[in-house]
Write the structure tokens for this entry.
Amino acid sequence: MLAAKGARAMRSNRMKNLAMRPAVVAALAVVTACAGGGERADSRARTETVLVAGATGGTGREVVRLALERGYAVRALVRDEARARALFGDRVTYVVADVRESARLPAAVAGVDYVISALGSNSRREPDNKPELIDFGAVKALADSARAAGVRQFVLQSSMGVTDPDHMLNKILDNVLLWKKRGEDALRASGVPYTIVRPGGLREGAAGEGGVTVMQGDPKAMGQIARAEVATILVEALGRKDARGKTFEVIGDPNGSPPDWDRFFKELKADEH
């Protein structure tokens, strides 16, 4: 009798442990979701989607690569799908559209969490891609579409020098910086949460080979920064409350160290409206 009672007690305890196991798993899941990342922890609960405009450009390619590494689903907004597929294969989804045709853009942003725009005109190389159509018109249309679609954040690559009407780039590239500034203003006016990054001269090179000098107010400073470093900043801004509503300039610092990104964005001043 005692042996039978002992066996029944052991079976009862095993059943209780099995019943408790889902609760323990659920509790562990909650702890895991809450750990390591503060405001960004909830973003790891599911795969978020980022639309990259200008995905096949120099900076755009780096953005796509890094976003994929960070676990985002990437939707590439491109004109030439064959060219894009040669770069990214089946790792991304494609939306084929000309950003100068604003009616095509609402469908491009539908269902995405974030937009990164690495668009940039070069009217000397492509006379039809004038700055007013790309750096202003396309950015404005994308921003308005993003706002209507409920996009959580729009991160824009702009440029240093946009507040200087006498900048040499305005003289040789159809007032490109003035149009970039108008694109910035359109993004701010759209109402979509935004981050605007103004890099200095863009060069090739890897990210993390030094530090970053950050400024605000568009000072008349000179400097270059690697495209890969700019891409890192654009992707790092995603999902950060401390990055929203802020505009800043960046150049490389070969003697510095890679930034602490939490501190980097937190110490920036928000734009005044």
Observations:
- The longest strand covers residues 246-253.
- The CA atoms of residues 100 and 133 lie 6 Å apart.
